[in-house]
Design brief:
This protein has 118 residues and is mostly beta strands. 0% of the residues lie in helices and 42% in strands. A hairpin with a 6-residue loop joins strand 7 and strand 8.
Amino acid sequence: MIFDLQIRAQLENVGQIIPSDADDFEWNVMFKCSGCGEERDTFRVLSLSDTSTGKSGKGEAHLVETCHFCGRANTVVIMEKSGAIPYLEADSGSFKTLCSLDCRGLEPTKFKLGVSLH
């Protein structure tokens, strides 16, 4: 399932918000297992430049983990061009997608922006 991470801001004297380097930008996201509903209380750090091979060995993901409660294997892939879309002054007051995540077995519950924004 694809989830969009969105923000809404009121920009004053700021032209845009955009990650300084989309490939190395770290997305801090909290997830819950969609199989059993167990939510871990720590943020996972995802980056386009950091990938791991899935348990089957067939594909790569930006997060590969097993639920500690039910044992389900879960993956998250950051969709292409995520982080390269600026939030502009014209977008003030409206929601805009900054990142899209293809989640298999996980659902994002919270996210926080890093400090490397322009």
